[in-house]
Amino acid sequence: MTHYWRAFGSLFFLLHQGKLLWLLNTPVIGKWFRWVLRIRRWDIGSKESISSIGPNFFTVSLGFDPYRGLKFRTDFRSHAKFSKRLYYAFYPLWWTLHAWDWCVADRWVPELSFGFATLTAYPDADPETNTVDGPIYYDTAEQTWAAIRGMATGSGALPSASEDSVLWLNTGTTTDRYNGLNRAFYLYNTSALTSGAAISSATKSIYGSSLAYSAGGLTPKPAICIVTSSPATDTDLITADFDQVGDVLQSDTAISSTSWNQAGYNDFALNAAGLASILKTGITKLGARDNTYDRPNTAPTWVSGNNTQCAGFFADQTGTANDPKLVVTYTISSPSASPSGSPSGSPSKSPSASPSGSPSGSPSGSPSASPSASPSASPSASLSASPSPGNATAAVTGTATATIIETDIVTGNKTIVITLNGDTWIPA
Predict the structure, then answer these.
(1) Fewer CB in 10 Å around end: N or C, the chain?
(2) Residue 359: CB partners within 8 Å, gap ≥ 6?
(3) Which residues are CB-neighbours of 55 under 8 A, at least 6 positions away?
């Protein structure tokens, strides 16, 4: 099966970014277009503006942090959700443009081409182009706990799953024997963050669909946790990936099987380890596994024929409202980000003096501070002070000839006045 939505890749979003943002943020039209792309009210506030969008993400600007710079929140999906929505919502239009390009424009008037001659030139969805998600399970009757938990290769891998087990643990009918164990993999293309992002928080969310566990079952109950994963490739899952899940918790939240939300998102706020695992220039690889027995390798107290299963939606589920997602909040440092309001955030130095200029800055701790200088020379440096106006201090170091005397530098409670007699002083 050919997936034509692949025509709407990163280049398409880059070329048409302005138009897409206008559609997403314009009153009334924006509400409709967000619905078209299945950006729901629980994904973004009605008054929040989208600042960028790509095949698998959208970004919201959260304003300016004076200490860290521009702050953003980006919602990542494990597949090209917004590419698919653009194609399926308007496919009659795209095919009309494709027909025009193929029959007329690209043959006779290329300047009128819409660039859709390649609409049919894209491969199948599996393996995916950038990322994959899905479960891998081991299902063989009557195994010891050590055997089933330590198995390197599973029985089946489901990279195209639409709805399946996020957690599954099944005991056998023979004493201390087990029949099944499940682990889930979630990969996200988070390269839109770029290397300059300073991540402050992130949440991994899985939309639950069903819950099943036997009465009088395992105690304590199995619970889902988030860990890292490392499948052999970024675009497929194979049975040999079964043991490619980490042991280090990426979230301090573990959701018990009895508390699994079957009709909404189950949220896992990432901890420090989880934030560090987000790859700002590539693919972030997370996984889900049982936190009660599987991750710590603690054998359950055996109960005959017990079944515990928490199911959820994966990327190939029909529709796009229930996608697994990773929402990242971060800042991008800005040259103007400084507690003192100085453009550089620290004193700048200039070895040269202007023959006629005046100092370019004053201590930011005082609104009235204004360095004065003689016409012959002046420093071009900006003096940085403490963020608290009531305790503003600053220091100046430099060299001068004997023509500079002590009274040429006068210090006050909130200001510094520098008088120059033909020599340049450089701020510390």
Answers:
(1) N
(2) 371, 372, 373, 378, 379, 380, 381, 418
(3) 8, 9, 10, 13, 80, 81, 82, 83
Residue 187 CA, distance from chain mean position? 12
- Give residue for tokens 């970004």: 59
How far is 125 from 140, CA to CA, in rounded Å? 30
156 burial level (CB within 10 Å; 0-12, 13-18, 19+)? middle
Contact 249, 277 (CB under 8 A): no
Q: Find residue 226's DSSP bridge partners.
A: 288
Taking each helix axis as running N to C, give the angle between helix 17-25 and helix 29-36, from 0 to 180 degrees, rounded to the nearest 10.
Answer: 110
The amino acid at 12: F
pTM of the model: 0.68
| Cis status of the peptide bond prior to 335, with omega within 30 of 0 | no
In this structure, the strands spanning 223-228 and 409-411 are: unpaired
pLDDT at 424 over 70: no
C-beta separation of 132 from 139 below 8 A = no
Token pair in block for residue 44:
């973004």
Q: How large a percentage of the chain has pLDDT more than 90?
A: 50
Supply the Cα-derived Rg of the chain in whole angstroms: 30
What's the pLDDT tens digit per position in 157-187?
Answer: 999 999 999 999 999 899 999 999 999 999 9
DSSP strand pairing (396-398 vs 255-256): unpaired
DSSP state at residue 329: E
Q: Would you call 11 helix, strand, or coil by DSSP?
A: helix
Centre a 10 Å sphere on the Cβ of residue 195 and count the other Cβ atoms it contains.
7
Give the three-class secondary structure for 313: strand
SS3 string, 160-174, reads CCCEEEEEEEEECCC
412 CB-near residues (< 8 Å, 6+ apart): none
Q: How far is CA 279 from each of CA 77, 81, 133, rounded to the nearest angstrom? A: 14, 20, 17
